[in-house]
Amino acid sequence: MSRIQLERVVVTAPTPGGPAPEVTILRETSLELTEQRIALIGPNGSGKSTLARLVNGLVEPTAGRVVVDGLDVARKGRDVRRRVGFVFTDPSAQLVMPTVLEDVALSLRHRVRGREARSEAARTVLAGYGLAELADRSVHTLSGGQRQLLAIAGVLATDPAILVADEPTTLLDLRNARRIGDLLLGLPQQLVLATHDLDLAQRCDRALLIDDGAVVADGAPAEVVAHYRALAVTPQDT
């Protein structure tokens, strides 16, 4: 299993025109993540997506460093991104080619040489995810579940060691959310999953609760989810 380390990582962002010169998005955080399935939970704006994006360099730390399998993400970003795949909340951010087949083939451009060989390999990938019949369809005609499944298939076609998924079921209906959740949790890759789906989080091996830019609970998913539920109960609710 891979090893993800955050060493005294801080992330800040400027606040143009604001009263303070910068805002802290992630407070000083040190973590070592070695479990196969790790859930990141917390309210909107808590910093969980920022933490997830640190793993493959989509967000760079203001201070501290992130290390993946011995590779410093800031210094060896290209090597890290070969090991770490990323799935966005909205698959439209990833589907850039006109057809389903072309989109997967694009993911394979560094692994498979030759257009015909790449197309054949892409068809094999699509068949493995039950998308073979959609190969020649425009990506714009797919349902939300089909688009997310295609985005995941394209990322996994590169055979990453780690998959980071940032709220991948948020835009899906219940049936498709369950389908995508089952797929992600059944992968052999190490999974870092930022999610609002607490049932999905409880199926992971470890959970981290992020609130106001800090990890406030870390451990067994059932316990961390219970802690989150308790935090969500305001005085008005009691």
Features:
238 residues; alpha/beta; Rossmann fold; six-stranded mixed sheet; 8 helices; globular; transport; P-loop_NTPase; nucleotide-binding; ABC_transporter-like_ATP-bd
How would you sum up this structure, described in words?
The protein is built from eight helices and ten strands. The model has no long low-confidence stretch (mean pLDDT 94). Pfam families: ABC_tran. This is ABC transporter ATP-binding protein.
In short:
The chain is α/β, with parallel strands linked by helices and 238 residues long. 32% of the residues lie in helices and 26% in strands.
Write the layout of secondary structure elements.
Elements (H helix, E strand, L loop, with lengths): L3 E11 L7 E12 L3 E5 L6 H7 L8 E6 L2 E2 L4 H7 E4 L12 H8 L7 H14 L15 H13 L5 E5 L7 H12 L4 E5 L3 H4 L4 E6 L2 E6 L1 H12 L6
Parallel strand pairs: 3-8, 3-9, 6-7, 7-8
Antiparallel strand pairs: 1-2, 1-4, 4-5, 9-10
Helix pairs in contact: 3-4, 3-5, 5-6
